[in-house]
Amino acid sequence: MSEGVASLRHQINSAEELESVVRSMKAMASSNISQYENAVRSLDDYYRTVQLGLTTCFKQHKTSSIIGRKPQPDKAAIAVIVFGSNQGLVGQFNEVMVTFVSDSLMKLPGNKTLWAVGERLQSRLAETKLTLEAGFELPNSIGTISTLVGKILIEIESQREQGFIDRVYLFHHRPHSGSIYTPVSQQLLPLDQHWRHHLAHIHWPTNNLPEVMPDREQTLRAMVREYLFVSLFRACAESLASENASRLSAMQRAEKNINELQASLKQRFHCLRQSSIDAELFDVICGFGSMK
Question: Angle, to 10 degrees, between the axis of helix 216-291 and the axis of helix 93-105?
Answer without folding.
Answer: 140
